[in-house]
Structure formats: C-alpha cells, structure tokens
Amino acid sequence: MKSKSHAFKQQAADALVNVSLQKALLNAKDGFIVKRKKAMDELPEFERLRTKAIEIKEHTLSHLDQYLEYFEQQVIKSGGTVHWASTTTQAQQIIVELCKQANARTVTKGKSMVGEEAAINDALEAAGFEAIETDLGEYIIQLANEPPSHIIAPAIHKSKQEIADLFKDHHKKYNFNSKLETIPEIVNEAREVLREKFINADVGITGANFLVAETGSTLIVTNEGNGDLTATLPKTHIVISSIEKVVPTLEDTSVLLRLLARSATGQEITSYTTFFNGPKRNSDIDGPENFHVVLLDNGRSNMLQNENHEMLKCIHCGACLNHCPVYSAIGGHAYGWVYPGPMGSVLTPIMQGLDEAKDLPFASTFCGRCEEVCPLSIPLPKLLRQHRNHIHHDKLNTSRSRLGLALWAFVASRPALYRPLSNSFIRALGWLGKKSGRFSWLPFASAWTQSKDLPAPAAQSFMSAWTQQQAKKKSSENE
Amino acid sequence: MRVALFASCLVDLFRPNAGFATVSLLENAGCIVDVPPEQTCCGQPAYNNGDKDNARDIAKQVINEFSDYEYIIVPSSSCAGMMIKHYPQLFEDNAEWYKKATDFSAHCYDLVTFLHDILKITSVPVTYQGNITYHDSCSSLRETRVKDKTRHLLACNEKINLLELGNPEACCGFGGTFCVKYPEISESMVNDKIADIEATGADTVVSGDMGCLLNIAGRLKRLNKPIKVFHIAEVLAGMTGIAAIGDADDTKKSEPSS
Predict the structure, then answer these.
(1) Long-range residue pairs from B169-172, CB within 8 A, at least 24 positions apart, any chain
(2) What is the predicted ipTM?
(3) Nearest-CA neighbor of A379 among B102, B142, B82?
(4) Most exposed: A3, A5, B174, B210, by fewest CB within 10 Å?
C-alpha cells in the first residue's frame, strides 16, 4: 500500500474523534496487557528465555548470510525452491509469475505482514487473479478495503456491527442473506464462504513466523487453522518471508516460540503451530505439489550494517503496540502504512523514507514501556531517538521548531543570560497568574492551553530565592 | 555530608517550593546543601528533539559545574535519568568526555534514591496527612527504578494513606515537547490518567517529576477538579502549606520557607 505516514498528524487527530474506533480501542486495550502479564507471571524463567532469545537472534543476525544459504540448501533438499527478492517489486513479480505458472485463478492467502509490506494482494489483483485473505481479521479488512490496524489483530478497530454490515454487502453474491447478530453467526458465515475458496484455490500463500535453517522448514503460528488449509489444499504453496526470520535450529525456534505467543496474545502456545517442509512426498496423502519460498530483503541487509540493526531482532509479537499509550489512543491506521506503534515508527521511516514518515518518531513520550515488554528487549526508544537525530540533522523538522530549539539552547547554555531572562519571565508570569494560580490561555503556549491550564509559577524562581536567602544568612552571620 | 542540588529547570521556574522541600529533606538528614549557581537545564529538550550538539553543550556545562561533588541530587527522575543514563551515551564517540560523563553520572542521584539508599531515612516530618495517590513517572519506573523506594519513603509517614492507581504503569502524556507537538494525543492520555486518579478516591495526587505534575495539574484544573497536586518532596518534607500546583493562592503567603 502507498504510505500515508506523511499525514500522521491529521490522521491521529481524526482517530481521536472517531467514536467507533475509540470504542473498539477501549475494548481491546486492557485485554492484551492483562493476558500478557498473566502469562509472564506464570513463566518464572521469562528473563532467562529472553536472554537466550537475544543470544539466538544476535548470533543468527551476525551470520545471516550463512544461515540463509543453509536454509536454501535444506529447502532444495526437500524439493522446494527459494526465490530471492531485493525489493517489494521483485517479490510481487516472482509471486505473480509463480501464480501464472500454476495457471491459477484463485489464490488464497494466510495472514502475512511481509505480504502486506510487499503489497502482494494489489499485485495479484492487477495481474487478474482473485486473491482471498483467509485469516478472519484479514478477510474482514480486505472486504473493507483497509490495511491492517494491528500486526497480529488486523481488524481490531472494527466493531461486530461493522463486520455484520460488511458481510451483508459482500456475501449477497454467495446467496447469504440472513441477518448476522452474534459472533458465532458471523464466524460461521465467513467459514462457509471461505471453505469454497479453500477448495477452489490453485495457489496458497502464507507468511512465516520463523524459517528453520537446519530443516528448511517454514513455520506459522495461528489460532484459526486457515494457514494450514491455505498451505495444504492448493497445488502450489508459496511462502513469503523476510530474511531476518531465519533461525538456526528447531531448538532455537522453541525458545522464540515460548516468548512469541505469550508476548502477543498471552497464550502459552497458539492453537496451531505448523511446520511446512517442502512439497508433498510420495508417501504423503495430501499437500502441495510445488513449494516456493520468497525471501524479501527490502532494505534489511542495509539495516544489518547500520545503527538500525537491533530492529531486525523483532519477532512481530505486537507487545510494543499493545503497551504503547500512543497506539492505544489512536489505533494503527493513523500511522499510515503497514506497521504501526513503536515498531512501526522505527520501521516506516526506514522503509518509506525519513521525510515521508518524519512525524512518527516524535509520536512517543519515550515512556519506555515498549522496550520493557519487548521479548527481545529491542531498545525502541533509542531507535526512535536515532531517527529524531537524523530528522534534526537533515533539517526535516519545521523551521519553527528549529528556531525555538535554537533560541532555547542559546539561552540555556549561557547561565549568565539564562538567569536574568528566566527570572524576569517568571516574575511576570507569576504576577499575572497569582490570583488564579493558572492560565487558561497564553499567547505562546496555545498547544498546551488548548486542553490544559498552565499552572502559574511562583513569582520568584528557586535559584533567585535561594541566592537571596543565602545572602541574607551570610549578612546576619556577619552582624 | 556535602551535597549539590541540581534543581531542574521546571522546579526552578515553576515550583520553587519543591526545591526548598528537597533542601529541607536533605538538611534534616544532616546534609550541607550547595546549589551551584551556573545551572540551567539538563538538556533534555534538545536531546529528545534530535539536537545532539546542543544537548552535548548543555551536558558539558552541567558536568563542569558539578564535577567537584560526591553527591549530586536531582528532584526529578527524568533529569536524573538524563544525567545518569544519557549523558554517557551523548559522548560515545569522544573518549575524554565519555569518561567525564561516566564519572559524573556515578555521582548523580534522583532524590528518592538518595534519601532511600544513601541517607537511608526512616522518618519524615509528620505534618502531611491525607489520602494521596501516587503517579509514577515513566523515568521513575524505567530509568531510576524507584517505584518501591518511593513507597517505602511515603510509608515513613503513617498519616499518609496511599491509594494506588489502577494502572500505575501508564504514561500521563507529558513527554516533554510531545505534549505540545501532539496536544490531542496528550490530552487523551492525561484524561485516562485523571480517570484513574479519580477512581482511587484520593484528594491529592503526588509525583516526583514536575513535567508530569504540570501536565496532570493543568488538565485537572481545566476540568475544574478539586484534586490537589504536589511534588513528592513537598509531601515528604511536610511543606504543603502553600497553594497546590495550579491552585489559586488563598493562603496569602507566597514566600517559600526553608
């Protein structure tokens, strides 16, 4: 999808007054946090696992080329093919070509954020294929023609009623006309529509949570089982993944899996954890005849070598979104591209350009909760700060904020100037605000006073009062 | 024990009483308090806006001004976090200043840590009474990590009835310049905080960071809520006789006392 991150400010303001979105966010807010906390409290070895997971990721990333080649060899050994895509355009071309080779009409898709990043659906539809999302959340937003608003719960912004209305509009053509009122009714209808698609699909595309180098397996964790049907029923199974998802061994994978579900949904383990190991073997009853893995770089090789490398440890659990007060206030769409929340505010400027996404790194109070809950301890505030440094250095921030900063810094780095200036400023402000104790409006502080009063300062600064007091003390001692 | 006070710009300019309360707590525990005159700000506004050059200049100025002191006390976790954690990071590519910053940071303490760990105080003037709730600033939770120490200090005064927030880990929405860059998001966050404060039934909200206090008081007063707002130093020192933050001064007494 085309990035709308440049319009973040407006989108965030709109989100805050969007009543149904706010209701949905409120419903979702504490659920994830409470469930994650419970799961972590029941896992006394969490810190040990986290340390181990960081070791695994750091080791893998420092030998990424070797593990990717090892993974490719193992995929080939099991009868599959690995395709290397430097850019999202290349990934689109490869996938469209594979679908053409399979003489496909219908393509089913399991949930994949890398698929979103590469805008695979758009490419498939432009090439004339019918692409159907089979994860319920993804299916809902596909019908609504919207991007996901959360990396693990793509339709979290939608209410039950909105979903029922969408189904009413879109399922008419399949002769579904009954009024949907309960969640089971909604789920059942989606299941019936999607079952036909699963059976008729010529190609199934899934993402991957991990790629296991030693076995050449790709792995997905799901709660709906749609990924398994997407992968096993069609003749061709295509996996799209980004390169940093490779893990050396199954043993390593199990460490990361124990952290992933708990961090994401608070589950010990998701309902389904499925390993795909190449096409159907002669002894297999079913499974795809062709197995392809498309590995997308899209700037990640560069990240590996620069100050953003720590972001490649991300296992896409979504904990940083769930615990981010900014995300909780505005939801995912305001961020304007595929990845929202703290991880999105780090990734979007890297992948869509700093100028396009320059407002995102500032959409954080640096509260640090994201880093605290991240199962890989990714220093998200530090990574956001690095973006801010570049924005300032490249003069991408507004001239107004640069001027304000420069003036303030000029004064603050000269105590001999700062002291008299701040004293007179405070004296004036203190005098003006003495009666009410606060200001409901100030000419230079409208961004503050639009929603908050500004507490009035005392008429004398601490430093000034202290100096006076010390002088008095001294003179009385001398007397 | 001679200690230096870094008042922080917000205490200096907006809440001198919190500065005097800090001095009072330190002096009661036997410290001789110096206030080095060449102090302005810790440099966070520049640092958090990506202006590393100016942040470094200000950091150098603070380090130079305070370098002779064994103990540098800051009544703010946010500024203490800046000085302890971020000053060294600012000079990672400058060996000479990196060493200076690291040496300096080893001597910096936020007020709560210093009272709890170094002075080990077990009693405070028992003049403050009431039902308070405590807002943990994000830096006090995740940089200076004083959540439990704060509770221990408040418990020194048995007349304080601490009513805990339902969601004490949540940011109040201040975030330095964040609150003026994104006033609507900040408003939404502080509204959540205020709902949480009100749900405790406390008549007073206390915190250790002036930024959070100005933010919370600003919104409380805009909404005409009667809840009072004080800095933790004021409550511990029993110096709450003046108007609370953002309240009108109806005591006719505006001179802070030490």
Answers:
(1) B169/A369, B169/B136, B169/B141, B170/A325, B170/B196, B171/A325, B171/A365, B171/A367, B171/A369, B171/B138, B172/B135, B172/B137, B172/B212, B172/B215, B172/B216
(2) 0.95
(3) B142
(4) A3
Calculate how close chain A gets to B58, using CA atoms only, in Å.
Answer: 5
Q: Which fold has domain A43-302?
A: Rossmann fold (3.40.50)
A468 neighbourhood in chain B, CB within 8 Å: none
- Residue range(s) defining the domain that contains residue B192: 123-236
Residues 6+ apart with CB under 8 A from A434: A456, A459, B249, B254
Residue B247 lies in a domain: no
How many Cβ atoms are within 10 Å of B159's Cβ, its own excluded? 10
pLDDT tens digits, A66-85:
999 999 999 999 999 999 99
**Total number of domains constituting chain B:** 2
Closest alpha carbon within chain B to A454: B218
Rounded to the nearest 5°, which phi and psi values hold at B198? -65, -35
Closest alpha carbon to A396 in A338, A443, A357:
A357
Residue pair A148/A154 in contact (Cβ under 8 Å)? The answer is yes
In a domain, B251, yes or no: no
Q: Which of A49, A155, A25, A50 is nearest to A372 (CA)?
A: A50
User: How far is B32 from B26, CA to CA, in rounded Å?
Assistant: 8
CA-based nearest residue to A86, from A239, A292, A298, A240? A298
CA-nearest residue to A473 within chain B is B258
Is residue B152 domain-shared with residue B106, that is, in the same domain?
no
Backbone phi, then psi, for A276, in 5-degree steps?
-110, 130
Q: Using the beta-carbon criterion (under 8 Å), do A455 and B218 form an inter-chain contact?
A: yes
Cβ within 8 Å, pair A456-B214: no
Q: What is the pLDDT of residues A123-157, one digit of tens each?
A: 999 999 999 999 999 999 999 999 999 999 999 99
Amino acid of residue A145: N
Check: CB of residue A394 under 8 Å from CB of residue A354.
yes
d(CA A351, CA A360): 13
* Distance between first and last Cα of chain B: 19
Q: Least CA distance to B140: which residue of chain A? A: A367
Angle A339-A146-A136 from CA coordinates, rounded to 5°: 90
